[in-house]
């Protein structure tokens, strides 16, 4: 009989799980050993020295992965020298690991970074508390398979982050309304602004006045004074803006009028700051006075401009028509107020297409939700889909996995590599930015969202500026291909595709080797067929012994806001390439069985 564990215990284990996987990748790989617990059965473990506290930690390994996280069981501590091992709570182990993060830098630097150490520990505990609260909410809600269900289901956050659910700046009493796992709803805060203060743009065929009219039912529309225009705002951001002296001065001058909460009701999506209403054709993305995981979430002007510019760029090509399995969710309009001496005023709002309106809610689920760890005793979303397909068709689960994974690569890998090859446009296609249409079980299409995630190749610059001249002047859009391919490989393969492979492996559906072999075969074919930068990317990823991965723990240790950093490459580390490892094992005849 399984012992019942509380939501807080589940949250504590999950917090250790994500932190420890980052720790062994970025700080200390530890030493793998075996020990014999009370029942006498040997268990593999990873052990870490904690010199700062004269201790040694041992975590049982419940499951290995070729390309995903280890699954940890019980944790033990041994105080040196010579004390016996005793079991320790996961959060107590994390206290030791956080101290060791900074001790590994040397005594002088560790002392200088005491504030960063306290900050990291605080974020770990905040993330733990948010996970526990989210699990309580999940237990009270039935979850379907719609777009919004996926956005609200990410109770654990991403395993590649040491503080995956950290929200700094959002109080415990605000989270029920504004954090997606709490299934809250709220109205937007509106302002009436002097129209001469407005700064805005929209792609051809998109009307900003029409968008604003959809947000407020006619019976709720505030009568504007002559020369005024409406601007919507997230309630948290609206409250923060009213404390800004420059904004308060505009109110005193009568050039800005707070109208309060009016119009349609919205619910937060997984990014927290993008909000959704199934009855409206637009989502809205705001700045928030909240530090989420690594960064303050601020809409910068280059991002607003990039959304419109990329909408114009894609309108000038037939790529999307030729690749119907790939769908781009555009951010084709923005609105803000211009304040003297500021690049951004805080009023920046991005308008995003909503393809998941009423009747189409089941046509897109974020891959992060499909691959997320389920609560103990439950199935992951992906396992549920695979086993339902196998039962429906009377087929072996491993064969369904192969067919599903092949269809997934058709949607999520091949069009993106071809896009990079043909146009020189690479996407930050991590698992939260990528959504699959699995309404019929097998993937039919992949959607990409987010105007922060475009990488344009300098090799293709002349052609791209001919399609969208404004891209030439937008900072942070064009990169050399060596930088693009490092980041593209991380987001698309390490972060996204490997999460699918690891999920199927952890769920016992198929051996990871089999899926890695399929991925390798697909990249080999693309490397043969493509003659441009996409072909270089595919071949390079196959042949590289190491691959880049974001160092989220190091980023947190140094208290870097990655969205403000001058050089994002500083937060990447090199890890062994699982495709190279799988290839070597296959050539040596030492690979594990390709299927269960």
Describe this structure in words.
There is one protein chain. A hairpin with a 7-residue loop joins strand 20 (434-437) and strand 21 (445-448). The relative contact order is 0.10. The strands form six sheets. The chain has an eight-stranded antiparallel beta sheet with strand order 8-16-17-12-11-10-7-9, with helices on both faces. A five-stranded antiparallel beta sheet has the order 1-2-3-4-5. With 596 residues, the chain is of the alpha+beta class. Helix 1 (7-26) runs parallel beside helix 2 and helix 15 (414-423) packs across helix 19 (533-543). Residues 582-596 have low confidence and may be disordered. It starts with 6 loop residues before the first helix and ends in a 9-residue tail after the last helix.
Structural key phrases:
8-stranded antiparallel beta sheet, 5-stranded antiparallel beta sheet, disordered C terminus, 20% strand, globular, alpha+beta
């Amino acid at each position: 009989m399984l012992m019942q564990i509380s939501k807080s215990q589940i949250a504590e284990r999950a917090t250790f799980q994500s932190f420890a996987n980052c720790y062994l990748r970025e700080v200390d790989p530890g030493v793998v050993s075996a020990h014999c617990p009370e029942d006498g059965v040997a268990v593999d473990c990873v052990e870490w020295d904690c010199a700062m506290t004269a201790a040694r930690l041992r975590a049982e390994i419940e499951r290995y992965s070729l390309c995903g996280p280890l699954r940890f069981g019980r944790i033990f501590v041994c105080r040196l020298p010579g004390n016996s091992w005793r079991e320790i709570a996961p959060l107590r182990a994390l206290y030791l690991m956080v101290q060791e993060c900074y001790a590994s830098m040397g005594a002088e630097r560790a002392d200088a970074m005491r504030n960063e150490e306290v900050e990291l520990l605080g974020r770990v505990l905040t993330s733990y508390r948010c996970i526990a609260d989210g699990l309580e909410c999940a237990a009270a809600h039935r979850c379907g398979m719609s777009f919004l269900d996926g956005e609200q289901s990410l109770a654990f956050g991403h395993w590649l982050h040491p503080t995956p659910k950290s929200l700094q700046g959002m109080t415990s009493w605000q989270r029920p309304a504004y954090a997606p796992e709490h299934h809250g709803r709220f109205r937007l805060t509106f302002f009436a602004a002097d129209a001469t203060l407005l700064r805005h743009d929209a792609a051809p065929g998109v009307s900003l006045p029409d968008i604003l009219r959809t947000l407020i039912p006619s019976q709720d529309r505030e009568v504007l004074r002559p020369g005024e225009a409406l601007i919507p705002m997230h309630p948290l951001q609206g409250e923060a803006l009213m404390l800004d002296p420059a904004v308060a001065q505009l109110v005193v001058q009568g050039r800005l009028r707070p109208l309060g909460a009016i119009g349609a009701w919205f619910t937060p999506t997984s990014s927290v700051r993008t909000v959704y209403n199934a009855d409206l054709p637009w989502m809205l993305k705001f700045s928030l006075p909240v530090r989420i995981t690594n960064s303050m979430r601020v809409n910068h002007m280059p991002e607003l401009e990039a959304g419109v510019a990329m909408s114009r760029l894609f309108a000038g090509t037939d790529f999307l028509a030729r690749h119907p399995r790939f769908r781009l969710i555009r951010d084709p309009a923005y609105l803000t107020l211009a304040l003297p001496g500021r690049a951004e005023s805080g009023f920046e709002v991005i308008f995003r297409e909503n393809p998941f309106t009423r009747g189409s809610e089941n046509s897109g689920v974020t891959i992060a939700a499909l691959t997320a760890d389920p609560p103990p005793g439950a199935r992951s979303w992906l396992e549920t889909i695979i086993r339902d397909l196998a039962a429906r068709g009377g087929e072996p689960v491993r064969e369904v996995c192969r067919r599903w994974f092949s269809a997934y690569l058709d949607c999520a890998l091949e069009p993106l590599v071809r896009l990079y090859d043909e146009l020189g446009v690479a996407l930050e296609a991590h698992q939260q930015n990528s959504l699959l249409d699995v309404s019929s079980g097998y993937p039919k299409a992949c959607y990409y969202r987010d105007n922060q995630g475009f990488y344009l190749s300098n090799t293709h610059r002349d052609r791209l500026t001919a399609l969208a001249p404004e891209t030439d002047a937008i900072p942070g859009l064009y990169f050399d291909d060596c930088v693009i391919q490092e980041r593209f490989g991380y987001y698309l393969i390490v972060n996204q595709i490997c999460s699918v492979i690891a999920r199927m492996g952890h769920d016992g559906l198929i051996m990871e080797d089999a899926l890695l072999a399929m991925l390798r075969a697909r990249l080999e074919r693309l490397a043969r067929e493509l003659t441009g930068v996409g072909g270089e990317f595919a071949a390079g990823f196959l042949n590289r012994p190491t691959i880049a991965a974001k160092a989220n723990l190091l980023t947190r240790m140094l208290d870097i806001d990655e969205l403000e950093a001058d050089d994002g490459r500083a937060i990447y580390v090199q890890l062994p390439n699982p495709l190279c490892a799988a290839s070597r094992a296959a050539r040596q005849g030492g690979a594990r069985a390709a299927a269960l």
